[in-house]
Automatic annotation (TrEMBL):
<feature type="transmembrane region" description="Helical">
    <location>
        <begin position="282"/>
        <end position="305"/>
    </location>
</feature>
<feature type="transmembrane region" description="Helical">
    <location>
        <begin position="48"/>
        <end position="65"/>
    </location>
</feature>
<feature type="transmembrane region" description="Helical">
    <location>
        <begin position="336"/>
        <end position="354"/>
    </location>
</feature>
<dbReference type="InterPro" id="IPR012429">
    <property type="entry name" value="HGSNAT_cat"/>
</dbReference>
<keyword id="KW-0472">Membrane</keyword>
<feature type="domain" description="Heparan-alpha-glucosaminide N-acetyltransferase catalytic">
    <location>
        <begin position="4"/>
        <end position="222"/>
    </location>
</feature>
<feature type="transmembrane region" description="Helical">
    <location>
        <begin position="225"/>
        <end position="242"/>
    </location>
</feature>
<feature type="transmembrane region" description="Helical">
    <location>
        <begin position="248"/>
        <end position="270"/>
    </location>
</feature>
<keyword id="KW-0812">Transmembrane</keyword>
<keyword id="KW-1133">Transmembrane helix</keyword>
<feature type="transmembrane region" description="Helical">
    <location>
        <begin position="193"/>
        <end position="213"/>
    </location>
</feature>
<feature type="transmembrane region" description="Helical">
    <location>
        <begin position="108"/>
        <end position="129"/>
    </location>
</feature>
<feature type="transmembrane region" description="Helical">
    <location>
        <begin position="136"/>
        <end position="156"/>
    </location>
</feature>
<protein>
    <submittedName>
        <fullName>Heparan-alpha-glucosaminide N-acetyltransferase domain-containing protein</fullName>
    </submittedName>
</protein>
<dbReference type="Pfam" id="PF07786">
    <property type="entry name" value="HGSNAT_cat"/>
</dbReference>
<feature type="transmembrane region" description="Helical">
    <location>
        <begin position="85"/>
        <end position="102"/>
    </location>
</feature>
<feature type="transmembrane region" description="Helical">
    <location>
        <begin position="10"/>
        <end position="28"/>
    </location>
</feature>
Length: 362
């Protein structure tokens, strides 16, 4: 019988809810600053959300594969799941309502959130199956230090490299030359190729926490909180020479986000698994079908922007203007209410699927 740790399920579902919230405001022109990404360097609460999900992917890998023996059957299962995630991400990027329902090839974005989840899941699962925690720690340090050296010290076509959004930024340079027009922006992609390397370390930190949670240690909470505090401090110190940056997924960003993930998961662990409080069950229901809920939210949101209801207004715009925009309410608040309503719907959907024992494994 598999050991269930309530806090892990709640954390996963909470992260999905936050991903939906920050991705679906009523209008992007009026959003409270904490619900927007940092323009470049630095971070906001929104910048924590995606790394939190990759972190809990790593934690979940420990639960899923701790009794698995590496071999063809396990590799096949991991590979198929990774390809499904990548395929769903490519579908989201390519879908359009115009026949043949695919964007012109040169406009299709190749990287994306689900694609990165698929690649990180593949790499982290294989690493967990074949390396002990000491080897994983050594590899994580090697990647983070190596990424810093690559990004900050190796000349790029005779120029001094930069961490700014510029042609002589290594991550932007690699993405532009590999993906060309298939990127989020003409000069960079927040889920780009080179920055995927440190994002794997985010999942590795999640693996460490998963190993701790399944251990027989009595001081799990203290270790999670202490580890989180140390990582946040180290990340901010590294920020002095390697800026915290989500778009580049810098090494300092990895440490800071993994630190905050440990702190938040530790607090939820204390409330649910230590104190036994019935807290956050609604999030755990959504977490049971996390990828399905996220995919549906992204796909339906895209449809709502594409489908017109007349006079050039989309379904999204009509719903927002009709139901949420009222005289006397700040537009930012109306925009937030729309996002919260969308989150509420998908939390209900997660609950409905859970109650009917519908679990779609991606």
């Amino acid at each position: 019988m598999k050991q269930r740790i309530a806090s892990v399920d709640i954390f996963r579902g909470l992260t999905i809810a936050l991903m939906i919230l920050v991705n679906t405001p009523g209008t992007w022109s009026s959003v409270y600053p904490p619900l927007l990404h940092a323009e470049w360097h630095g971070y906001t609460p929104t910048d924590l959300v995606f790394p939190f999900f990759l972190f809990i992917v790593g934690t979940s890998i420990v639960f899923a594969y701790r009794n698995k023996t590496p071999g063809p059957a396990v590799y096949k299962k991991i590979g198929i799941r990774s390809l499904k995630l990548i395929g769903l991400g490519l579908f989201l990027g390519a879908f359009t309502l115009s026949f043949p329902f695919i964007e012109p090839f040169e406009q299709i974005r190749f990287p994306g959130v689900l694609q990165r989840i698929g690649v990180v899941f593949l790499a982290a699962s294989l690493l967990y199956l074949h390396l002990n925690w000491k080897a994983l720690l050594g590899l994580a340090a090697f990647i983070l230090l190596g990424y810093w050296v690559w990004m900050g010290f190796i000349p790029l076509e005779g120029q001094v490299p930069t961490f700014d959004r510029a042609p002589n930024n290594w991550a932007n340079y690699v993405d532009l030359h590999v993906f060309g027009t298939h990127m989020y922006k003409p000069d960079y992609d927040p889920e780009g190729l080179l920055s995927t390397l440190p994002s794997i370390v985010t999942a590795i930190f999640g693996i460490f926490t998963g190993l701790l949670l399944l251990s027989e240690r009595k001081d799990k909470l203290r270790r999670m909180l202490f580890t989180g505090f140390v990582l946040v401090v180290l990340g901010h110190l590294w920020d002095l020479v390697f800026p915290i940056n989500k778009a580049l997924w810098t090494s300092s960003f990895v440490l800071v986000t993994a630190g905050w993930a440990n702190v938040l998961l530790g607090l939820i662990y204390y409330l649910t698994d230590v104190r036994g409080m019935r807290f956050g069950s609604l999030f755990s229901y959504a977490g049971a079908n996390a990828i399905t809920v996220y995919f549906l939210s992204s796909f339906i949101s895209k449809l709502f922007y594409m489908i017109s209801v007349g006079e050039g207004q989309s379904v999204h715009g009509w719903l927002f203007q009709t139901l949420f925009v009222h005289e006397g309410l700040p537009l930012e608040f109306s925009s937030l209410l729309y996002g919260l309503a969308v989150v509420a719907f998908y939390l209900w959907l997660g609950w409905w699927m859970y109650r009917r024992k519908i679990f779609i494994k991606v």
